[in-house]
Structure formats: structure tokens, C-alpha cells
Amino acid sequence: EDFIPILEWGKRKDAYLFTPSFLLRKKRTLEENWTNYKNSEKTVFLVEKDLVVIGEVSYDLNFPLIMKKDKKTAWIGIVFPEAKGQGYGKLAMKFLEEKIKELGIKRIELGCFEYNTRAYDFYIKLGYKEIGRLDKFTYYDNKWWQDIRMEKEFE
Predict the structure, then answer these.
(1) What's the predicted TM-score (pTM) here?
(2) Residue 37 and residue 114: Cα distance in Å, rounded?
(3) What is the DSSP letter of 63?
(4) Which of 39-53, 65-79, 109-123 has the highest mean pLDDT?
(5) What would the mean pLDDT of 69-88 be, rounded to a whole number?
(6) pLDDT bracket for residue 35 (50, 70, 90)
């Protein structure tokens, strides 16, 4: 229920493109969600283990809510709802960073919800630095939380 399937991935019945439901500001149809992906500069990779999707990683080269707009930036997203602490996130981040470097992009920005201290510590270990916070960004567990914006720059 935290993730809404947008479409079946290819002709497979075991792979779907998902969008986290907390990102949806209003109810939209599956077709509207797919149109948003299709019309963006977002690239999504599904992560599988034993032919089962365990996560999603993505980058967007035209994300409208980038905090620092001074240079070409890739916004990244990483979601592993059931596979925490198994090393998949670290491998996925390395994969995303390499893909972004191949595109000639020298900066990555991401958002981390304040309540997700595990993810925050993970990003710090990978060399990301906090650049700002957006107040009352998400509502979770009967409380408003900040979105912590982080960045990593490449040479």
C-alpha cells in the first residue's frame, strides 16, 4: 500500500514500475502517473533478486524541486522497502553515480526524510553533504517532518 504500481514492466508479470504513494499530492490514474514518467527526463531501474523486484533506483535530469540550480544536476531516488541492510543500496548508489558520471553530470542532489536516520547516515558514509532542509515536507506517523537535501559533487 506504500507503493502504487504504474505499469507492468515489459511483458513480465513479476516486475512493475512503482511510484511511492507519499509523493502523490493528489489522486491520479495509473495513466496519468505513467505520463509523468514518460514526459520527464527520469530514468528508472528496477533492482531484482532471484527474478523478484526488491527495489527501484532512478535519476532525473530535470527535477523541478532541485535546491541548488547553479549547475547541471541529477536528482536521484532510491527505494528498497524490504531489502535494507543487505548491501543492495550501496551497490545501487555506486551504479547510479557511475551512470550519472557517464552523462557528464558533476553533481547529484537527493532528499532524505528527517525521520529516516538510517538513510541519512548511509548517505553521509557515501560522501553526501547536507545543503538545506525543507520544513513540513512530509507527514508520517502523526507528525510533520523535514526533507533534508543533500549533495555530492564530482571532479
Answers:
(1) 0.71
(2) 26
(3) -
(4) 109-123
(5) 79
(6) low
Q: What is the C-alpha end-to-end distance of the chain, expressed in Å?
A: 40
In sequence order, the 6+-apart residues with CB closer than 8 A to the CB of 75 are 59, 60, 61, 63, 65, 66, 108, 109, 110
Q: Which amino acid is at 92?
A: A
pLDDT: is 81 or 21 the higher one? 81
d(CA 76, CA 136): 21
CA-CA distance, 74 to 92, in Å (whole number)?
15
DSSP state of 139: E
CB-based contact 59:78 (threshold 8 Å): no
pLDDT for 18:
43
Rg (CA), the chain: 15
107-113 vs 74-79, strand pairing mode: parallel
CB-based contacts of 107, cutoff 8 Å, min separation 6: 68, 71, 72, 73, 74, 151, 152, 153, 154
